[in-house]
Amino acid sequence: MVRPLIPLSFNSPMIDCSSRCCVCCLRGGEERFDEVRSGRYSMRKINKMSAPMKHKLCRILRRCNLNFMLVFLFVASTISVFVTYLYVNTVFGDFNEESDKYLLHFEKHDDILVNIDTDDDDDVDAPSHRVNLIVNRIINKQTFEINGWWMPSQEWTTEIDCNTGKMTICSKSLIVQCKQNSVRAIYQYLPLKQGNSVRGLYFAAKSSSVNMQEDHQFAQLSMYSAIAYLKFNDGTTQILRLDYPGGSHSYTLAEIETTFINNKTLVSIMVVLGCYGYQGVAKFVDVTITPINNGSNSISSSYLISRCPRNIMKPNDKDEFMQEVMITSEQNEGVITLVTQLSMDDIQLLTRVNQNWDDQLSVALYVPTKSESKDSGHEWQRLYINKKIKPLKAQSRTNMIAVFANTMQDEYPVNFLRNLALRQSTTDFIFIIDADFLPSPNFKESFLKWLDFDTIKGNMDKIAFVVPAFEFQDSAKEAIPPASKEDLVKDVYDREGSIVPYQYLENPDAHRLTNYPVWYRSKEPYKVTGYQDQYEPYVILRRTPSLPEHNEHFSSSLFNKVSFTMELKAAGYEFLVLPDVWAIHMPHRQNSHSVPPLKDPPQLDDHVRRFEFVSSLLTRYGIGRCMHRLHDVQDKQKPGRFH
């Protein structure tokens, strides 16, 4: 008679517990006995086992139990790591990824890394869900793009913060060390599509601070705020401002909701986080811009945000300046023209420049006024100018045009002046530099010898020759320009020396790509590698019909020169550093136009113009996401000019 197989249940006394194998007494251990694949075994057969067989069975069960536990722990750990990875990428936002649902691809364009979005703005349906237009990513400063947070300098950092008061575990915060006399701000620009139906906005942000102390001498201008700067189609603007208390506090929510009147169409939004007039640490998180459409907030970002903004820079509406030619060069020969601009207050600088320059000189001179109403009488200024420029007239190699201010409220039109001076030049090459710089000795000869260099010959129309810039330290007792490169390099490396690379402390990114350590030992020209959106070297260019001009929308100290470098790069210029020429900034008394008073710490208008300018570059030169729109650009105006 065949005995039936008895299931080994959790209550089955599989093996006598008097044996030395304690594992054998564990309930359920019999289910892991590897020999019985079907999960059943005859109890009588087990009882007939010899002692050695029982001990062998115990060892098998012990080993199987341990392996099972190890496999279980490994699988659980792997799942935990995978879930954590997904959470970090989807909830935290990696500030290097778009938070919007469309994908971005990367492509090289003339050594500039740009974001490509091939979708067109048109024919996009608007799904109904609540949306935050803010993009949680930091813009790569080596690119031409406007999508994300842009930092003028590197004072901002990011970190994962788990004390924000959110239901989710953690969020990524933007952190800045505030200083009383320095604007520390970060910007995000949101260009909206034409004809959008946004009728209001909800604006909110959280901020915490550590030891934020306000300096009372900046009380009227101080800010520790989140700001939304709105521009409308009729040219008007509106500012939404969220202020936060000083001292030390945990994350505090500030919020505001507004509706637009008169059915105005919103053109763009610029969000600013920052501080001025405070000392301490500020953190920002959960910045939110939610559009409202007829009382609802159900508009998607892809339906609203223009991925390839059209040029919306409007013509300058300032009064035309009165102009007068003061000197006309009698020499038509020459190789390179030094192109410069300056105020009448600094006219004495021209004498020093003229003594160190042996070729053509083109000057645009700004003549300020103290009149509050439009001034048309400038007789005493003419007499003063003619007295100061007699040495220049005697040499007959200078072109000078005077530009007379209308009122005392006029800003110094630096790029307008640069373009005037550039148009006066007649030589094949131009050297664009400020009047408070002195060129190195034998500048023209040192430049000309490289024109037959293998990497230069035949390609000069698209080369920007970089001239390294230096300055004297404030502690310098005497400002004596070096007579040779050897003397210059020796002074730079001397601990007691007085010469340093230009703005290496105040604005290191402005000339960093020139790579001064390489220049010190270089014997021949070398290429500038990479790109950085704050690079603004002084350059020599070949005068061609397609040469970009300086953008005249920038009249303040912000972006007036770097915008020109950006357009050169967008137009396909290659930057080449010359090894044996340089320019050095000479100390002089600052005039009223050198450091304009700070009326608006975050400088909203200037930064909006900067984003609009970058947008125009993307469109006009078919860069990145606007590459597919290049053939649609009907404006055949000369690059650099806006009408």
Secondary-structure topology with pairs:
Blueprint lengths: L42 H5 L3 H42 L12 E5 L2 E5 L32 E2 L5 E6 L9 E8 L5 E8 L8 E15 L8 E10 L4 E7 L3 E13 L6 E11 L1 E15 L8 H4 L17 E6 L8 E8 L5 H7 L4 E8 L11 H10 L1 H6 L2 E7 L9 H11 L4 E4 L4 E3 L3 H6 L14 E5 L1 E4 L12 H9 L5 E3 L14 H6 L4 E2 L10 E5 L19 H9 L3 E4 L5 E3 L18 H17 L23
Parallel strand pairs: 14-15, 14-17, 15-16, 19-24, 20-25
Antiparallel strand pairs: 1-2, 3-6, 4-5, 5-12, 6-11, 7-10, 7-12, 8-9, 8-11, 13-16, 17-23, 18-25, 19-23, 20-21, 22-24
Helix pairs in contact: 11-12
Could you tell me the CATH topology label of the largest domain: Spore Coat Polysaccharide Biosynthesis Protein SpsA, Chain A
Give a count of the beta strands, DSSP E runs of length 2 or more: 25
Strand content: 25-35%
Biggest sheet layout: 9 strands, mixed
Give the strand order, joined by hyphens, for the main sheet: 13-16-15-14-17-23-19-24-22
> Uncertain regions: pLDDT < 50 for 5+ in a row?
1-43, 90-128, 633-643
Q: In which range does the helix fraction lie? A: 10-25%
The residue-averaged pLDDT reads: 79
Distance between the termini: 107 Å
Look at the structure and give the CATH class of the largest domain: Alpha Beta
- Broad shape: globular
Q: Give the name of the CATH architecture of the largest domain.
A: Alpha-Beta Complex
Please state the CA-atom Rg, rounded to the nearest Å.
35 Å
Structural class: alpha+beta
- The CATH fourth-level homologous superfamily of the largest domain: Spore Coat Polysaccharide Biosynthesis Protein SpsA, Chain A
What's the helix count? 12
In total, the number of domains comes to 3
